[in-house]
Design a protein that fits this description.
single chain; about 240 residues; alpha/beta; 6-stranded mixed β-sheet; 10 helices; about 25% strand
Length: about 240
């Protein structure tokens, strides 16, 4: 579905992304991890066609999205770190606003709305409340919901569980699993090794813009019939490289 080949991006002589290649298929939950400044945000911005790479190619379903950005935009759900909701509107009003922004046909809206509510664990009562009165976890979950309204093939989640309670975190992780089970590809950007170990089937570790590890997670964590943690693996591949 999504493939990066030898992608590079430089800012003022600093290599933000340096010869990065990886592939994400339908149903994958692909974890992109690294310290602050490792190149995660730049990578996500290039995939979302917000910025262009200096060189290399990004393919979505075999199409070069640098040359044809509309090919991925119509099939992409983007959950940014910052909450992208209207605080003075209710949850319902936000859902309707974003459905119109995605040009979802009216006859399909109710079906998509109900499906999204199931995924994020929202009730009808919750939908009637103004967003400014939501908890941080509720806002995060609704933020994910609006990104799923148009049934995207690929969803980018950039730190979707930061600063929220354990219950909401569990609901978000369960939503990610459900998306993957239905064939949606998920690019999951995060810092929590525990979360990524739970939900991702592949990971890519970035250090100063370069990929130092890109493997199937389950296979990588097995050592002579013993299991190591993702945190231990991360330390091994990043120690003395930052």
């Amino acid at each position: 579905m999504l493939e990066l080949k030898n992608v590079k991006k430089t800012y003022k002589n600093i290599k933000a992304v340096d010869d990065l290649s990886f592939r994400l298929e339908h149903g994958d939950v692909f974890g992109l991890i690294g310290a602050n400044g490792a190149g995660k945000s730049t990578t996500v911005s290039m995939i979302a066609t917000l910025i262009k790479p200096d060189s290399g190619t990004i393919f979505f379903n075999g199409i070069d999205i640098v040359k044809h950005p509309k090919e991925i935009r119509k099939s992409l759900g983007f959950v940014p770190q910052e909450i992208a909701l209207y605080e003075t509107l209710t949850g319902e009003d936000n859902i309707e606003f974003w459905a119109k922004a995605y040009h979802i046909e009216r006859q399909l809206f109710q079906k998509q709305r109900n499906k999204v509510m199931d995924i994020i664990g929202f009730t009808e009562e919750m939908m009637k409340i103004q967003v400014k009165n939501y908890s941080g976890g509720m806002k995060r979950r609704l933020n994910i919901g609006v990104a799923l309204l148009h049934h995207p093939e690929l969803v980018i989640m950039d730190e979707p569980t930061v600063g929220i309670d354990l219950k909401s975190r569990g609901q978000i992780l369960e939503a990610v699993r459900e998306l993957a089970s239905e064939g949606t590809g998920v690019l999951y950007v995060g810092h929590s090794m525990e979360e990524i170990e739970k939900i991702c089937n592949r990971i890519c570790i970035l250090v100063q813009g370069k990929s130092v590890f890109n493997e199937i997670l389950e296979k990588a964590l097995k050592r002579d019939e013993k299991k190591v943690s993702l945190e231990q693996l991360y330390i091994e591949y990043t120690e003395n490289k930052t």
